[in-house]
Amino acid sequence: MSSSATPSLPVVTARPESWWHRHQASITPLLLLLPALAAFSLFVLWPIASSLWLSLHDWDGISERRFIGFDNYRELFDDRVFWTSIVNNIWWLLAFMLAPALGLAIALFLNQSVFGIRLVKSLFFFPFVISQVVVGLVFAWFYNPQYGLLNEVLRAFGIEGISPLDSETGATFAVIVAGLWPQIAYCMILYLAGLAAMNPEVIEAARMDGAKGWRLFWHAVLPQLRPATFIAVVVSVIGALRSFDLVAIMTAGGPYSSSTVLAYYMYEQTFLSVRYGYGAAVAAVLFLIMNVYIAFFLWRMLRREQA
């Protein structure tokens, strides 16, 4: 009897993995982020670097740039209007910290199901959707000493009329009030979204434990609104430090530069006084202040999260 030979199996040799297969998991996220990083570098990082470099030059926008080092920054420290702008920005910053608190209070009031609440919400939402220019014009008419509504109300109570926009001590605060109007509306929208996304089981559990009133709000409601609070505070800080539209419309920095802020002073020095390097130096200081404050707030938030 003949024996049949066992067929031999072909020997398969393993192919070496390509460089792409070995690094695919780490490179793919970078490739997906590359378009966004390119756009961010082109439209954010490059303008910031260009502005910082311009602040080291003396330039009128036409003739050749002249490198002067830190002379623009040295001049800033002796500039009275610059220090007035910083003080006014601090007032704006302190006042705008009221916006998240007032926005939360209004959101809690509007977060109920009663007849006509949608109409009331739309009225509170209205200041946010209109232009800052319109807000400035409306409040300029409101403060007008001749036909403004403010003085009409004061005269009705027998009080002599005032002109806040013509006062060196009151112009800044009059403009800040105008800026708070739409800012409060924006914070209210953020908190309404946060209230709609809350977990009702946490609220019910707190009520079962006997929490009510202020304790319920502090321990069950406010912790769930932390993301909305973070966004509201950061946006309010940025809005306070870059305030420009209302100052330009209502006072143009006056009277006697008493209501000017850093953003408007940067515009004034750059385009009205034609000092591009000096205006860039003001912008660099504003950028530094904004980043220091936001970094400090982020650090506080991270410490609180880790605690």
Automatic annotation (TrEMBL):
Residues 85-299 form the ABC transmembrane type-1 domain. Keywords: Cell membrane, Membrane, Transmembrane, Transmembrane helix, Transport. SUPFAM superfamilies: MetI-like (SSF161098). It is found in: Cell membrane. It holds the Pfam family BPD_transp_1. Gene3D superfamilies: MetI-like. The keyword Cell membrane applies. InterPro entries: ABC_transporter_permease (IPR051393), MetI-like (IPR000515), MetI-like_sf (IPR035906). It is a multi-pass membrane protein. The keyword rRNA-binding does not apply. The chain crosses the membrane at residues 30-49, 90-111, 123-143, 173-198, 276-299. Belongs to the binding-protein-dependent transport system permease family. This is Sugar ABC transporter permease. It comes from Microvirga splendida.
